[in-house]
Amino acid sequence: MASTSGRCSAAVAVPRPLGHSAFSRSVLPLPGSSRSRQLCCGAFKTQPVESNPVRKAFLDIGVSSDDWNRASRLEPELLSYGTERVHGILELLLELGLTNRDIGTVLIAFPQAFRLSLDHHAGPVVEFLRTDMGLSREQVVALVTRFPSILGMNVKGQLRPQLAFLASLGVPPEAVPGLVLARPLVLGPGIESVTTFLRRCGVPRQQMARLLKSYPIDYRLHIRGLSAPGPSARSPSWWPGGPPSPPPPRG
To answer: Which residues does the annotated region (Disordered) include (predicted)?
Structure first.
């Protein structure tokens, strides 16, 4: 008869946690075994969302947790954004004069803004708006809050050609700020399709600027059989992250 005082050499299997396919089953020896304990789950430590540095960066400047939660549901990759770029864009927006509520609006409408390069996208865009377009600081704040996708546009390849296109429609330089603030999507690629359609409808060129500002035209409209020259004929990647949508209503 085997002695009951001897140490049992049986091993207990540690079950694999549900929802983590990367975990493998391991064996945990009973006390007294010469084998060291092996806990596979110890190699995979998930950082709590509450301590995520990106989340903390937004909450620290006063963005509400509701805005953060809504944005992170819309953009799950937000948690893995580089903190250096996040802090850079936040500093730029704060220096412009955006409030924590404004930044929450930008975060929900276009979270991808916070992974942009400050030197190659957001910074040059703000400089373009101030110098080339002649927008005041307050006007830049209003435009960025309402139309945050502009931060991801390329100045040389997108914004300057669009500004020249507006001038070709007869928009005088002094009227550009008012037009852009009233209809920010005139800076997007859809304006060529809209103006081509208006010309086919017989709208005189000299009335284009007034019409663009006065009427809420859908610049994302695609008209069958209508192709317009210029930037809109390029691939959808011309617009970073795809065509922009207006900011969703805040609860």
So the answer is: 229-251
